[in-house]
Design brief:
The protein contains 17 helices and 14 strands. It is an alpha+beta fold.
Length: 522
C-alpha cells in the first residue's frame, strides 16, 4: 500500500465512529427493445410504461427503443438490485412479444435513418431532448448510440465527511472539502478505472450489422460476428464511447471551478464540422447548437461528478450551487449472464473501489498523465486479457495483472472496513470473488462470453438473442414483486402521463425562446 492510502485507512480503522454505512447507491440500466426475432423495435414507447419524459423509474435514452431503468438512491446493494429486478418484471408485463436485449453491443440494427429517435412529446423540454438526440446522431452516428450499459451512482454517507475532515486536519468549508475529495476520487478512477473493464467488461464481440455495411478492421469470429480475441469491452473502445470525435475537448478534473469552466467553454465554442450540419434544415432542428458540445451531458466520461439539479437547472449550475454530491460510474457493461444485467458482487466491489480511489493520493493531472489514462483504457478495452500486456504507470511500463493485483489488495482492505459495520462479510466475499479473476483471466465475463461463442458455434447475435429469451422467461417465472412495489411502479407510470400533459399545457413561450433562456441560465 502506498503511504497516504495506508495512513488514511489506518486512521479510519482506529475510529469506532468511522463508518461507510448510510452511503447511497443507485443504478441506471439501459436495454434495447427488440422484436421476438431480435431486430430493433420500431414501435413507440409502450403506453403501459408511462411517459418517458416524466416517469422516474422508466425512461428512454437515445432511441425510442432504448429503455433506461432508474432506481432511487438506496441504502444497500440488495435493495438496489431488487428494485432493478422489479422494474424489469413490470416492463416485461407491458412489452407483449418484445424482448429486452441483454448485451451492451446491440442487436441486428437497421440503417441509421431507421433507428428511431426518442420522443418526449410537444413541450419545449420534450422537444429539446429529441433535438439533442438528433444532434448526437449527426455528430457520432446513430449506430454508436444504440450501445447500452449500466451506470452506478454512489455517494458517501453524510456522517463520513466531518470525521474524514477531522482526520485530515482540513479546515476548508465543508462543501469545498467534499468537492475537492470527490474530484480526487474522480481522477483516481480515471487512473485505475481500466480495471473495471478488465474485471467486468462483457462486450468482446459484436454483430456485423453494427458496422452499417462497413468492413471493420477486426478479426471475424464467424460470418456474422466481429471480435477481439483478448478484448474486454468494445463498448469502451474506439468503436464505442471512447471515440476520437471529442478528442479536442479538454475538461479539467483538477478543480471544480475549472471543470465547470471548461464544460461551459465547450458549450460556447463553435466546431466547424458541426457548423456544416447547421441548426435548422428544411424547417426542422438538426441539433441544439453548432458548438463542440450541445449540452454538458454530451461530454462522455467513464465517471462524472454530479449533483441533483433543480427543475430547469443545468448540471454545471447545480455543481456551482452546492458542490459535488455523488459520482456516476458509466463504464460498466451489461453482464449477459445476469437477468438484471448487474449483480451485487459487482456493485459491492465498485463501491469499495470508489472508496479506495477517494482515500488514495490523487495528484492533479497534466496533459501527459491524463493521456496515459486514455491509452490504458483503450489498451484494456481491446487487449485486456492478452498475456503479458503492460500498461503505463507514471511513464513506466507495468504488467496489467501485477497492477490489478495491487489494486485489488487495497480494495480488499477497504472491504474489510465496510464489513466491520455490515457484519456479514459480503464486501470481503465480493472482493475475494473478483480477485480470482485477476489470477484467472479466463474466468472474466469477457473470456467466458467468447468461450461460449466458440463452444456453441453460433454468432454473437444468436447467442445474445437466446439469452434475451431466457431472461424474459426468468422474469415471467419468478414470484410476483410485493404488491406495494407493483402498485408504486404502476402508479408512477400512470401519473407520469398526466405530468407530461401538465408540462405541455404550461408552456407559454416559443421553443426558440426556451432554448435562449436555457443557454443563458448558466
Amino acid at each position: 500500500m502506498n503511504q497516504v492510502f495506508e495512513q488514511r485507512l489506518g486512521a479510519l480503522q482506529a475510529r469506532s465512529d468511522a463508518s461507510f454505512a448510510g452511503g447511497l447507491r443507485g443504478v441506471e440500466k439501459e436495454a434495447l427493445r427488440v422484436t421476438a426475432d431480435g431486430y430493433l423495435a420500431q414501435t413507440p414507447h409502450p403506453a403501459g410504461l408511462g411517459s418517458a419524459l416524466t416517469n422516474r423509474y422508466i425512461t428512454t435514452d437515445f432511441s425510442e427503443a432504448l429503455l433506461e431503468f432508474v432506481t432511487p438512491a438506496l441504502g444497500s446493494t440488495w435493495e438496489t438490485l431488487q428494485v432493478v429486478c422489479d422494474i424489469h418484471q413490470f416492463a416485461y408485463q407491458q412489452l407483449g412479444d418484445e424482448l429486452l436485449w441483454c448485451a451492451s453491443m446491440p442487436c441486428r440494427i437497421p440503417a441509421e435513418a431507421d433507428i428511431p429517435l426518442a420522443r418526449y412529446g410537444d413541450s419545449n423540454v420534450g422537444r429539446m431532448k429529441t433535438v439533442y438526440r438528433r444532434g448526437l446522431g449527426h455528430r457520432y452516428g446513430r449506430n454508436m448510440q444504440t450501445i447500452s450499459g449500466v451506470h452506478f451512482n454512489y455517494s458517501l454517507p453524510e456522517t463520513f465527511w466531518p470525521i474524514y475532515q477531522e482526520i485530515l486536519g482540513d479546515d476548508a468549508v465543508d462543501i469545498d472539502f467534499r468537492s475537492t475529495h470527490y474530484l480526487g476520487l474522480v481522477r483516481n478512477f480515471r487512473r485505475y478505472g481500466w480495471i473495471v473493464l478488465y474485471l467486468f467488461g462483457a462486450s468482446p464481440a459484436l454483430c456485423k450489422s453494427f458496422g452499417g455495411g462497413r468492413t471493420l478492421s477486426m478479426p471475424e469470429l464467424n460470418a456474422d460476428t466481429y471480435y477481439e480475441p483478448f478484448g474486454t469491452s468494445l463498448r469502451m473502445s474506439d468503436l464505442g464511447y471512447n471515440n476520437q470525435t471529442q478528442a479536442s475537448i479538454s475538461i479539467s478534473l483538477n478543480r471544480l471551478d475549472e471543470y465547470i469552466r471548461d464544460l461551459g467553454d465547450a458549450i460556447r465554442t463553435p466546431e466547424p464540422a458541426y457548423e456544416k450540419i447547421g441548426i435548422i434544415r428544411d424547417g426542422e432542428y438538426q441539433q441544439l447548437s453548432t458548438n463542440k458540445l450541445q449540452i454538458e451531458n454530451e461530454y462522455y466520461s467513464p465517471i462524472r461528478p454530479k449533483r441533483v439539479a433543480r427543475s430547469g437547472e443545468r448540471p454545471t449550475a447545480a455543481l456551482r450551487r452546492g458542490g459535488i454530491e455523488y459520482v456516476e460510474i458509466r463504464s460498466l457493461d451489461i453482464n449477459v449472464a445476469d437477468p438484471a444485467g448487474v449483480n451485487q458482487n459487482t456493485m459491492r466491489f465498485i463501491e469499495a473501489f470508489l472508496i479506495y480511489c477517494l482515500l488514495d493520493e490523487s495528484p492533479p493531472f497534466d496533459a501527459a498523465s491524463y493521456e496515459e489514462t486514455l491509452q490504458n483504457q483503450s489498451l484494456t478495452a481491446k487487449r485486456g486479457r492478452e498475456p503479458g500486456l503492460a500498461l503505463q504507470r507514471n511513464g513506466k511500463p507495468v504488467g496489467l495483472l501485477d497492477w490489478a493485483g495491487e489494486i485489488v489488495d487495497k480494495v480488499a482492505a477497504v472491504a474489510e472496513l465496510i464489513d466491520r459495520h455490515e457484519d456479514d462479510g459480503s464486501y470481503r466475499d465480493a472482493t475475494t470473488f473478483v480477485a480470482s479473476q485477476v489470477a484467472e483471466p479466463d474466468s472474466t465475463p469477457s473470456a467466458r462470453l467468447l468461450q461460449e461463442l466458440h463452444d456453441s458455434d453460433c454468432s454473437f447475435f444468436e447467442f445474445a438473442l437466446d439469452a434475451a429469451r431466457r431472461h424474459k422467461a426468468y422474469f415471467s417465472s419468478i414470484a410476483p414483486m410485493p404488491p406495494q412495489r407493483a402498485q408504486q411502479i404502476a402508479r408512477e407510470a400512470r401519473e407520469s402521463v398526466q405530468r407530461q400533459r401538465d408540462i405541455e399545457a404550461a408552456d407559454e413561450i416559443s421553443f426558440e425562446e426556451y432554448l435562449a433562456r436555457y443557454f443563458a441560465s448558466d
